[in-house]
Amino acid sequence: MANAHKSVLYGMIAALAAVLGVVVAVTLSQPRGTAELQSGTLLPQPRALPAFTLTDQDGQPFTAASLAGRWTLLFPGFTYCPDVCPTTLALLKQVKAGLGPEQPLHVVFLSVDPERDTPARLKSYIAQFDPAFVGVTVGEPQLADVTRALGIAYAKVPGASPESYQMDHSASMILLNPQGQIVAYLTPPFEAGRLVADLKPLVAP
């Protein structure tokens, strides 16, 4: 059991180090004059994603085409999360309202727990926050490929029983433009007012 815990710990440290390296590299590469965000880091150039196919809460394919034409804020998590995920989704409801209907924001909740987060469970879960939110899932190894491209780290943490495990994961949110490219990483701690102030000029029509 000790070796299993060490493997999870080492894997999580390695994944987080990789994500931190991306953020640091982006920060150092930002040219002078680049707009600054209160809530995170704006990339100097949008970063394209490789092709992917996920499944949404209605059991339908979710691909790069699903991101086209609108600004998207993507947040990784899982429905059995006891604190960070529900708190962040509730916050995103406030942010969406703060931006108003003139600046619609597409919110996507990416599950890092495909073993338990079925499309039906995702649909029931996200409806508690906003029925317009989208929940997506995909099994391994595709999940690892997608999260790597997004700069998301996650690791399974064993519990007292095989069913009671938790998922450690990045708490950052990812902003994608209407072309489906990554333009910013938003990092905690989050505050609705600061997020709205950061997002308004970026997602303005």
TrEMBL record:
Q: Which family does it belong to?
A: Belongs to the SCO1/2 family.
The residues that hold Cu cation are: 81, 85, 169
Query: Keywords, A to Z?
Result: Copper, Disulfide bond, Metal-binding
Disulfide-bonded cysteines: 81-85
InterPro entries from the entry?
SCO1/SenC (IPR003782), Thioredoxin-like_sf (IPR036249), Thioredoxin_domain (IPR013766)
SUPFAM superfamilies, per this entry?
A: Thioredoxin-like
- What Gene3D superfamilies does UniProt report for this protein, alphabetically? Glutaredoxin
Q: Which GO terms describe its molecular function?
A: metal ion binding
On the tree of life, the source organism's domain of life is Bacteria
Q: What is this protein called?
A: SCO family protein
Domain Thioredoxin spans what residues? 43-205
